Amino acid sequence: MLLSTRDLTKSFPGTLALDRVSFDLKAGEVHALLGENGAGKSTLIKCLTGAYRRDSGDILFEGEPVFPQSTLEAQAIGIGTVYQEVNLLPNLTVAENLTLGHQPTRFGMIRPRATQALAQEMLAGYGLDIDVRRPLESYSVAVQQIVAIARAVHLSGRVLILDEPTASLDAREVQMLFDVVRDLRVRGLGIIFISHFLDQVFEISDSLTILRNGRHIATHPAADVDRMQLITLMLGRELAEETAVRHRPEVTGTSADAIRFTGVGRRGRIAPFDLTVRKGEVIGMAGLLGSGRTESAEVLFGAVASDSGTVEDASGPVDLRNPRSAIAAGFAFAPEDRKTDGIIAELSVRENIILALQARQGWARPIPQAEQQRMANDYIARLDIRTPDAEKPVGLLSGGNQQKVILARWLATNPRFLILDEPTRGIDVGAHAEILRLIEDVVAQGMSILVISSELEELVAVSHRVIVVRDRQHVSELTGDDVSPDTILRAIAAPHTTLEAAE
Amino acid sequence: MTGATLLRRIAPQLLTLAAVIVLVSIYYPAFYQIVYVNDRLVGIPIDVIKRGAPVALLAIGMTLVIATRGIDLSVGAVMAICGASAAWSIDQGYGIGAALGLAGAAGLVCGLWNGVLVAFFGIQPIVATLILMVAGRGIAQLITGGTILTFDSDTFSFLGSGTLLGVPVPTVIWILTGIGFGLLVRRTALGLLVESIGVNLRASTLAGINSRVLLVAVYMGSGFCAALAGVIATADIRGADANNAGLWLELDAILAVVIGGNSLLGGRFSILASLLGAMIIQTINTGILLAGFPSEFNLVIKAVLVIVILVLQSPRIVPYLELLTTRRQRVKAPATKMEAGK
Amino acid sequence: MLERLLMASVAVFSLGAGVAGAQTIGFSQIGSESGWRAAETTVTMNEAKERGIDLRFSDAQQRQENQIAALRSFIAQGVDAILVAPVVATGWDSVLEEAAEAEIPVVLLDRMVDSSPDLYLTAVGSDLVHEGRVAGEWLVSAVNGEECRVVELQGTTGSSPAIDRKKGFEEGIAGADNIEIVRSQTGDFTRTRGKEVMESFLQAENGGADICALYAHNDDMAVGAIQAIKEAGLKPGEDILVVSIDAVPDIFQALAAGEANATVELTPNMAGPAFDALEAFFADGTMPEKFIQTESKLYTQADDPAGEYEARKDLGY
Question: Which residues of chain A have pLDDT under 50?
Fold first, then answer.
């Protein structure tokens, strides 16, 4: 065995994060670590990399007990880690990032040429054709990930831990990354892979280990398990609806109470488009990252003011100059990047939930404390937000729970039109299903929803119709039986497709 | 905030203040003596809460600005402008009402200027307020004509050196202002909204908070506090000194906010803790004067004390201190729980 | 304005009439950073006007390069003499040499330079130590042998006026064992700090009962301290003697009200002695001393303080 843990135990005040977990990683395998948020994946990784000190149990590296006290020591032993958010220095060059801490020097001075040569050597075999003299930030996240991997492999060389490496990559970039991973597997590295994207897990992994509530549940060869079994193991319960792919008929309804966007857009961000949002309708929006789908949402919410067109509803023109006016008009928007655009990390769950409602009421009319408590506890129960209490800073919750808090914030304003940009990204399976169920609930009550998602099956499952965005234009609208992952994919991929051609 | 959580929030500041007082009283044992003569309370503690008035007032506004992840370097210069405006107004014979109105308006206009630069032009707060910090004294000098503009108005100087029921008027002003701002931010939703934009401006704007207007309002609040401080400083010496009024006080105000345990990165804030910070600084200042060291040592002693205070409050040290205290608390754990339950 | 124009034309006319003496003089002033500096400018202009001198004034706004540029321009204009209040002590050699080559005498006002004395005609200034000594000697005679505990308000720590005025005062009271400085703190030359520090002195010295006299390094601090004394319920000028330095208008008001006892003048009239020296030099080539010390005149309540206030209040202090 390359790397093993034996009865690894770690507790935090009030919780047992790891309960006698044993885990084996072979050389030359990709081993997926799976579980809901809070199952103990991160804790296990942090014990392996020395970020946490274990309470008891052993970590064996090639059979020898090791005691890493820091990520540097773990690296020296041979264990390297690459995280979702690349933890390199974006304003340094690629070469400097690769060689930082071990630059070739002469008389204490760094030798730029030798540094670049070393960097090039380190990148050889990763299929990257980039200029190592340019700043890291001038390359895409995928390239940055691969640079981080190259650095980690160079420094440690035996075990590579990839923690949610694909969360912010598009499909092509994921393939680029996987090519690198497969290559490293052939070179005999042991790779621990953590991801919420089950498709990717099945695509790349040789073995799967499932954790739940800090316990080791099962380890299987990837080929022996199917999706359904895996989810059942992760959740510890059957989840009937999760994989049920179905689409709904178009909502025809009267257009009397619809919101009609005509020719809205923003130069340089998204070409003018028309959109009619009917009561109780779920509109899906598909497209690659950077295709203009988030830009569409921003225009619809007034986060970026439209520079053309009109917006009307039954009672006349709707003012969407800025988010405030959009919210006053009954709009709501859960953005893609929860950390920077969604949560107010330091504030409590309660304060995050009441924030939009409070902002709409104005500062002079504070929501009474008792009412705040009631609302917070109500939504914590309704959305199953996992938090010890309503006063916990929201930044300390897991991604899925943060997303639920943002949903609660908007539901509290009782909107008529809710825009969800990637509502399930980076969220564990349980929360994922709950959020989809929630969408159904609120739609049943007459709310209209626009969902942007990269997970096509999810889109197909919830949407009445799907709009496809490409190259900053709305290129097609799929309705009725045309809504399937296959048709969406073709509309996204087809060059120069028109609305007719897609049908 | 319940009583228990409030107490926990300001406990470090209360302990620090107590420690500094004990330290000063070692050098000056008569520290605690307060007597009542000529209709006024006299004693070192009274001096502290009177002399600390300008920094306390500035700290109130500064706390809010810092909570939005900003900083206001101009408050010292704004003090000079407002003091000069008030003195000019008295000198011209417009009366005390006009003087106060003019000073307040000048403070608000200065705050408006800073706020617009920060909120609408997106200039970094430290740079935006630096402009007025540099230019402000020039403006004040234009108002005073380059001299110390003295005036003779017992009503106006009452604001600087008078007493109410034996308590110095500046003390009454800063305490009332502190209570006023405290109620304003905590009895309305302003406090929450300010903290929100301080933690995450973008997300707050997307949640429908009118962040620009709120930012401008916060800087105007800081300008208003500086106006009050300027009026007190001017009334105190019966003259507007454009060069020296409020000189370097912006730094003491920032220090008060930091000693008050408020993060320069914005977010959660406590005005009460900042006011305690201001009193800690003033106790140190007064203590140094009383101790009778040669004046060459003044700044060094102050710096050493500030470093000690900040190190003891730093996040890396606190866990160790808590370790020491929790051991003791374990013995009386049930009692603490009872208090928390209240 | 019209008056000034007339004056100028009279000056030009008198030049034409061939009146002896320097007629066109350049004056490079540091700036107007203090009331005293502004008064110095006003007094210099008044002195020039009285003597029928065409004064070319240049305000350097605290920058040496502005002063050097002004001096070069004076040299180019061919003025008869140059007055300069140097903003810093070093870096004057080359421009002073240029003036010497053009045979234009230079007189330094108020501050010194590090250049060779050959490069300027003379320097006019006050002696800071002497000022302190005059204040100290006044106190010795005022208390007349009785026990006296003195508190001292120093200028900005480390500045030369603070060091020299402290030293001079100590020299002035050196022979008198009955006088003792019991507390000494910096008041930064400002009213606010003067008042604040005086308050702490009063607290520390038994409510002020143990203090016999206050010595302040400038009048502004004294004015602040006088307020502190009044607020403590004591009578400044009687319960506590007040002596300070500078003789700015506000201290004369205090003297007139009996709240201050004495001030030592730092005269803003540096130009008067400078013009005198230049006149003598042009008339018969008399070389003045290299340093002309201005008088450090002592003013007390007996010296018509109200009148002195009136004479000074419009000088720009």
Answer: 239-245, 496-503
Distance in Å, alpha carbon of C147 to nearest chain B alpha carbon: 21
* Residues of B whose CB is below 8 A from A350: none
Which chain A positions have a beta carbon within 8 Å of B187's beta carbon?
A: 366
- The distance of C111 to chain B (nearest Cα, Å) reads 21
Residues A209 and A87 in one domain: yes
Note the pLDDT of residue B1.
59
Same domain, A214 and A268: no
Q: Do chains C and B touch, with touching meaning 3 or more CB–CB pairs less than 8 Å apart?
A: yes
Chain C residue numbers with beta carbons less than 8 Å from the beta carbon of B241 are 190-192, 220
pLDDT over threshold 90, residue B319: no
- Cβ-based neighbours of A363, under 8 Å, separated by 6 or more: B188, B189, B190, B193, B214
pLDDT tens, residue by residue, B183-206: 999 999 999 999 999 999 999 999
Among partner residues B38, B147, B237, which is closest to C195 by beta-carbon distance? B237
CATH number of the domain where residue A158 is located: 3.40.50.300
Contact assessment for residue A468 and residue A286, using Cβ atoms and an 8 Å cutoff: yes
CATH number of the domain to which B120 belongs: 1.10.3470
DSSP for C147-211 reads -EEEEEEE-STT-HHHHHHHHHHHHHTTT-TTEEEEEEEE-TT-HHHHHHHHHHHHHHTGGGTT-
pLDDT of C16 > 60? The answer is: no
Residue A302 lies inside a defined structural domain of this protein: yes
CA separation for the pair C97, C208 (Å, rounded):
56
Interface with C, mutate which of B147, B151, B243, B288 (most C CBs under 10 A): B147
> What is the domain extent for residue A210?
3-91+135-235
CB distance A363–B206 less than 8 Å?
no
Put simply, the answer to whether C34 touches B28 (Cβ < 8 Å) is no
* Contact assignment for A346 to B195 by CB distance below 8 Å: yes
pLDDT score at A399: 80
Same domain, A140 and A42: yes
Domains of chain C in start order, with CATH, are 2-123+268-286 (3.40.50.2300), 128-266+302-309 (3.40.50.2300)
**Is there a contact between B237 and C191 if contact means CB atoms under 8 Å apart?**
yes
Copy the structure tokens of residue C102: 């053009």
Q: How confident is the model over B287-300, as a mean pLDDT?
A: 88
Owning domain of residue B257: 3-341
At residue C23 the predicted structure's pLDDT band, cuts being 50, 70 and 90, is: confident
Q: Does the beta carbon of C195 lie under 8 angstroms from any beta carbon of chain B?
A: yes
Same domain, A14 and A139: yes
User: To 10 degrees, what angle do helices A399-411 and A349-361 make?
Assistant: 30
Provide the number of structural domains found in chain B: 1
3-class DSSP string for A116-144 = HHHHHHHHCCCCCCCCCCCEHHHCCHHHH
Instruction: Note whether A280 and A442 are within 8 A (CB).
Output: no
Residue A497's contacts (CB-CB under 8 Å, 6 or more residues apart) are: A470, A475, A476, A490, A491
Q: Are residues A231 and A270 in the same domain?
A: no
Domain count across chain A: 2
Residue B17 has pLDDT above 50, yes or no: yes
Flag whether residue B319 sits within 8 Å of chain A, measured between CB atoms: no
Task: Give the model's pLDDT for residue B322.
Answer: 65
CB A159 within 8 A of CB A78: yes
Which of A327, A344, A360 is the closest to B203 by Cβ?
A344
Do A496 and A421 belong to one domain? Answer: yes
Question: Tokens 């009118």 label which residue?
Answer: B210
The DSSP result for B33-44, as a single string, is -EEEETTEEEEH
For residues B30 and B286, the answer to whether their CB atoms sit within 8 Å is: no
Same domain, A35 and A163: yes
Do A55 and A166 lie in one domain? The reply is: yes
C225-235 residue pLDDT tens: 999 999 999 99
